[in-house]
Design goal:
17 strands; homodimer; 2 domains; alpha/beta; Aldehyde Dehydrogenase, Chain A, domain 2; Aldehyde Dehydrogenase, Chain A, domain 1; seven-stranded mixed sheet
């Protein structure tokens, strides 16, 4: 049964109350809530992983790893909010000699936005769904969350939500701080609801753009953090190709195969020097044939993957190296085209095939590497396969202007949850290129700065008082000062 | 002559080239460009101030002060980018024991967006116009700027732009990194131009919202940093009223009068305990009569101010304390209504009268203070007039949820350029409540994070290399480490 409009409104209002109640909690308490969720998630893995496997066809080992990642992420974000980094506490004392005239006492801290709507992604039923990075960072920020379930794993989502709600309850969090809605209508109702203050979304460019437009058209527009489409091209220098061709090809195939090609960071293109085809194709065919096959996440995804594959394959300037077909368990498919073709039809670079397919782009002249790079639209990732000491500055600069993360001799699939991670990029990779949806910086999306001017110490919010009772890192009069234990 | 579509396109393309050329410059060079502009602005004040006075009717002393503020702002933002704070350099070294699996080396830095369109405001012809906070922070970020002139001070804008361009040229900045366009059409063309990567705007809610909608509707939406409407209410506790009533009223009138009421932070409402009217009204009338009068910025503003004043005055539940009329040099007008009226018709709180008018809102019961506060829409500022030791936590919390800056016993007019300043707030105060348009943090609006994974040290962007050649503050493996001289 889909959530009705009345139910949804009641949930959002309860989420607002919970948000307000949670304002009184200390960061250490919020950390405890996240840790409680992580603990209970792990202790529920014997129930949740099989549910996930049945609904998503992703294998057991992968799902177990994903659950652990999700629990780790909750703990890391919890520790981060306790340490206070996302608060960005900045204190300017009065200064009678300030260059533009006497400076008042101004103290700034990031405060949570309110109720956040989070849309689950189909391809990571733990890490980017019910209590994935978006929900975890919104809760860490001090927001409440209403989660829109992805129809691809509804049973898992409901059970996961039970686990989350129970963990939050047992840890003493306000009731209603996390809840879940189902049904497509629920998604648009959430984006439109006046109490919802931000939206986080991971999914297709088409679906995400429609919701982005809706969020922007509200009487009061709200931030929409959408992670949409990306083809994550890999650029191979001639030198790397000469030295490591077969390894590069095998690793490339392995990266394309991850999650049956259903990763937002799957390398959709690899740009390589033109070379002897016979040997190279054999390496690719052998590697592809070894890749595990399975059903895709949903029958709809299988269909749209097939359609997008056929569309590209049928171009006269594209040929098939290996693959195609396989029914419900698609074979890995590798296509080939040339850099000249890309330069004539750069829209090919935006052709996302969400499934186990990718395209080799052959260049004849080294200058074509940068030319192809320059034609890119916004990407989550771009990659250089090169050799140490090669001058790749120009290529690296072009790629950094097109993407949120640039890799060297690695593969874009696999996004570590760290302090420096940037999972985002210019549109259409995301609708908010200044933010990341993975890593500790993801928390800041759900906060906004408030400054307090001229307050007596005792009437300031605790975190801003001189004695630094929360022991957070601060910037004082332009200089960083130590927080906890430094 | 308005800028033609062809001229505009050529300028934007030149700005893109200049942006790319400037990527090779060090932060210290960019600081030198900003300092050069500041120097030349100051040495041109004898020419610029009279031009500004003639076009805006703002007095000489105010304009001189504003020019100095603008120069100070350029130098402060320059120093900030040299110190590297806006780069937010974050380094995670490889960690084989990272909780979710081995962590690769990931290094993140904020990089400039590209060409930025800046719209000048009418009311601060220096500080929020041609080379005001928006242009200065975009240049500090490493972006190029195309500035859309406000028609209210076109001659000044052109001369200021000459000064800026000449300063940049003499300091060695790439040609075209700053230019200026005129005409209303130019504004929409800029927002639509595919090379423009962000827009900064200060002005009316209506005009700003139209451009925001346009920026969001682009094939590739871009961030739109709009500072729009705000009524900046002031809340006076009963205790403060009893102890300091007359002083509060006089200071309030002084704040309303600043710039002939044409400040985006003008207190449009003051919520006070109901009390003896005769004495109070006398204080207000006396204070108001002493305020300087002059022409407003433009005849259109005079008209729309008059219209909005009449609209509110003509409500049956609003009365006039003093003022009205005055032809081209409007008298300060103070209106009165009750907290009950506001609770019945909260839309009054959003009624912005851009000129020397404000509204007293009288409350009978102390609980009405928080009730009125709760009815507010997004604001740039809110203010508490209270006494040291009073428990204002609840009120402060409500106000912080409604505004970007909360003041204690001060007045919102006057926005110091500092590290902790927050000039922004929830819609309609701005279209991007997570950002500020004043203070050093304004720079970050024009950058986005890029992370580099697995790069050999020598192939990384310089700023991310281990030896820290730019001597910037960094966060390494989750811990802050010293930058220059700390």
């Amino acid at each position: 049964m889909d959530t009705t409009a009345e139910q949804l409104s009641a949930q959002v209002e309860q989420a607002q109350h919970a948000f307000e109640a949670a304002r009184a909690s200390l960061p250490a308490e919020r950390e405890a809530w996240l840790v409680a969720i992580a603990d209970r998630l792990e202790s529920s893995s014997e129930e949740l992983v099989p549910l996930a496997a049945a609904e998503t066809h992703l294998g057991d080992p992968r799902l177990r790893g994903e659950l652990l990642r999700t629990a780790f992420q909750l703990r890391l974000l919890g520790a981060e909010i306790r340490a206070g980094e996302p608060l960005d506490v900045t204190i300017d004392h009065t200064d009678p000699n300030w260059g533009m005239g006497p400076r008042p006492d101004i103290r700034r801290v990031n405060e949570p936005l309110g109720v956040v709507a989070v849309f689950g992604a189909s391809n990571f039923p733990f890490a980017f769904s019910v209590i994935g990075g978006d929900s975890a960072s919104a809760l860490a920020a001090g927001c409440s969350v209403v989660h829109k379930v992805h129809s691809g794993h509804e049973q898992l989502a409901k059970r996961t939500a039970d686990v989350v709600v129970e963990a939050l309850r047992s840890a003493g969090a306000p009731g209603g701080i996390f809840s879940l809605v189902t049904g497509e209508e629920s998604g648009t109702m959430l984006v439109d609801h006046p109490l919802v203050q931000a939206v986080a979304f991971t999914g297709s460019t088409r679906g995400g753009r429609a919701l982005f437009d809706r969020a922007a058209a509200r009487p009061h527009p709200i931030p929409f953090y959408g992670e949409l489409g990306s083809t994550n091209p890999v650029f191979v220098t001639r030198l790397a190709w000469e030295r490591r061709r077969d390894n590069i090809l095998r690793e490339f195939v392995g990266s394309v195969a991850m999650g049956i090609g259903q990763f937002c960071t799957k390398p959709g293109f690899i740009v390589v020097p033109k070379s002897q085809r016979k040997e190279m194709d054999q390496v690719l065919q052998d590697a592809a044939s070894l890749m595990p096959r399975s059903e895709m996440l949903t029958p709809q995804l299988r269909r749209s993957y097939g359609d997008s594959l056929v569309e590209l394959r049928d171009r006269p300037d594209v040929e098939v190296i290996t693959g195609e077909g396989g029914g419900n368990e698609p074979r890995m498919t590798l296509l080939r085209t040339s850099a000249e073709t890309i330069c004539r039809s750069p829209e090919i670079l935006e052709h996302e095939m969400f499934g186990p397919a990718s395209v080799l782009v052959e260049y004849s002249d080294d200058s074509e590497l940068a030319r192809v790079a320059n034609l890119l639209d916004g990407q989550l990732t771009t990659t250089i396969q090169g050799e140490v000491g090669e001058d790749v500055d120009d290529l690296r600069r072009v790629l950094s202007s097109k993407s949120g993360r640039v890799l060297w001799n690695g593969w874009p699939t696999g996004v570590s949850v760290t302090y420096a991670q940037q999972h985002g990029g210019p549109y259409p990779a995301t609708t908010a290129s200044g933010t990341t949806s993975v890593g500790t910086s993801a928390i800041r999306r759900f906060m906004r700065p408030v400054s307090y001017q001229g307050f007596p110490d005792g009437q300031l919010p605790e975190v801003l008082r001189d004695e630094n009772p929360w022991m957070v890192e601060r910037r004082i009069d332009g200089k960083r000062s130590a927080g906890r234990g430094t």
